[in-house]
Amino acid sequence: MNQSLTAFFGVRVGHWTNFDARTGCTVILFPTGGVVMSAEVRGGAPGTRETPLLAPDKAVEKVHGLLLTGGSAYGLAAATGVTAWLEQQGEGVLTPGGRVPIVPCAVIFDLAVGDPKIRPSEQSGFAACEAASSHEIENGQIGVGAGAMTGKLLGFAHAESGGIGSALLHVGEARVSALVVANPTGDIVDESGKVVAGTRKTDGSRLTDAERLEILTLGQNRFLQHTNTTLIAVGTDAILTKLECSILAQAAQMGLARGTRPSHTPHDGDTSFVFSVGGVPAPPMIALVAAVQSVVHQALINAVGYHQNLMNTVGKTTSS
After folding, report:
1. Largest alpha-carbon pair distance within the chain?
2. What is the DSSP letter of 137?
3. Contact by Cβ (8 Å): 236, 277
């Protein structure tokens, strides 16, 4: 069974990956005409494009694509390629000057992991669209997750690989699925609080409580600032308004907090997107809030649990 966003009819996902440079981007393409979407931006160091349009009080009602990308601020350029590709498909808001596709974008910092001079570009975003399919999304270091790292409280030399991960839950007749890009300052923990990926000591063993270390040392551990982001894309086939998507985008941030310690620091730029493809009557919002928190946490764990699968992949640049 497909346990990812592509389980929803009409949703396709594509990657552009440069494994040598440890960077990439991941595009989510929506059914013809777009989807309802909202977002929540937290932490002190976000990098985004077009997220203000997703506020419930803004006029834009439909989104045609979503891009999650590496390359820090440079990677925002890849969204232009997605916009160009969607224009060729005849997608976008109709204006007197033609159709304008709405493509929100959020970035992670991966410049210190591979080659900082190679970043996702306009051509990369276009290539990711060309590669998009309805196949189940792979977990691990692919696309935007190629250079993701976790547990940077002692610096990149003590961090572990992150990646992208997916999960899906049923809520009555509806389904909720999450795609998470794990690239936080803190560690990833399971439901019991056990660290499953994060900060490692000089001898290679994993710290068991990096969050407590920060408290005891008053945050004196030196690491690069503004270099951490966890990105979240949650989809559902429950029929939702833009306001309801906004409420669930806030819930997604709580799922992130459940699985990341510490979370939402001044050095993280955590951004969550929630979209509805519709088709199924929505269950009570409290049930959807609980499901979103749970599925985001599980996707976080899947992101780091499978990163070894792609560590030995051969080849410079791929689209998949």
Report:
1. 63
2. P
3. yes
What are the strands of the beta sheet with 317-319, ordered from one edge?
Answer: 48-49, 105-107, 65-69, 23-29, 12-18, 317-319
Give the whole-angstrom CA distance, residue 135 versus residue 229: 26
The CATH topology of domain 5-308 is L-amino peptidase D-ALA esterase/amidase (3.60.70)
**8 A C-beta contact, residue 248 and residue 293:** no
Q: What are the pLDDT tens digits along the chain (320 aa)?
A: 899 999 999 999 999 999 999 999 999 999 999 999 999 999 788 899 999 999 999 999 899 999 999 999 999 999 999 999 999 999 999 999 999 999 999 999 999 899 999 999 999 999 999 999 999 999 999 999 999 999 887 777 778 889 999 999 999 999 999 999 999 988 899 988 888 888 876 666 666 566 555 544 545 555 556 677 899 999 999 999 999 999 999 999 999 999 998 888 887 889 999 999 999 999 999 999 999 999 999 999 999 985 433 333 333 456 66
User: Domain boundaries in the chain?
Assistant: 5-308
Pairing, β 12-18 against β 317-319: antiparallel
Task: State pTM to two decimals.
Answer: 0.91
